[in-house]
Amino acid sequence: RPTEKPLRVPLQDVYKIGGIGTVPVGRVETGILKPGMIVTFAPANLSTEVKSVEMHHVSLPEAVPGDNVGFNVKNLSVKDIRRGMVAGDSKNVPPQETESFDAQVIILNHPGTIHAGYAPVLDCHTAHIACKFSELLSKVDRRTGQATEDS
């Protein structure tokens, strides 16, 4: 897994732990998470310092891709951040909200046709959010990986 890419930690949960404070939990997808870093949470665009990083109740000097970690953050409440948000390094390509993106989407058991304007709920990492297809670029056969139709 890529440690040299910008840090991305999709949040699975956020806890308030007595005597410690706010602890977001998630799996590091890319980059490295370390105590002392300033992280930004998207799409809220909130930044704060990471006080500590733990995995299975053991304090870590750093967390790498694949690690499921909890990290204590300064001055944020559990009301400020939530599941589905993404944490990243404020100083290295921080994550940000976007209006649109290209995606390869796998459709499971869908009756009827899928077309521009279709509005499904998308699951992406830990986010579960409504979106709208503005255009279909192509359809791909999952068995072969080949485009069967180009729009």
Task: Explain this structure.
By secondary structure, the protein is mainly β. It folds into two domains: 9-89, Elongation Factor Tu (Ef-tu), domain 3; 98-151, Beta Barrel (Elongation Factor Tu (Ef-tu), domain 3), CATH 2.40.30. The chain has no helices and eleven strands. The strands form three sheets. It has a six-stranded antiparallel barrel. It has a two-stranded antiparallel ribbon with strand order 8-9. A hairpin with a 2-residue loop joins strand 4 and strand 5. It is elongated.
Summarize the structure.
This protein has 151 residues and is mainly beta. It is 0% helix and 38% strand.
- How many distinct folded domains? 2
User: Which regions are unreliable across 5 or more consecutive residues at pLDDT < 50?
Assistant: none
CATH H level of the largest domain: which superfamily? Answer: Translation factors
- Specify Rg, calculated over alpha carbons: 18 Å
CATH domain fold name of the largest domain? Elongation Factor Tu (Ef-tu), domain 3
Question: Which structural category do the helix and sheet elements fall into?
Answer: mainly beta
The portion of residues forming beta strands comes to 35-45%
Which whole number gives the mean pLDDT?
A: 94
Distance between the amino and carboxyl termini: 34 Å
The largest sheet is:
6 strands, antiparallel, barrel
Main location: cytoplasm
InterPro entries: EFTu-like_2, GTP-eEF1A_C, Transl_B-barrel_sf
Protein name: Elongation factor 1 alpha
Keywords: Cytoplasm, Elongation factor, GTP-binding, Nucleotide-binding, Protein biosynthesis
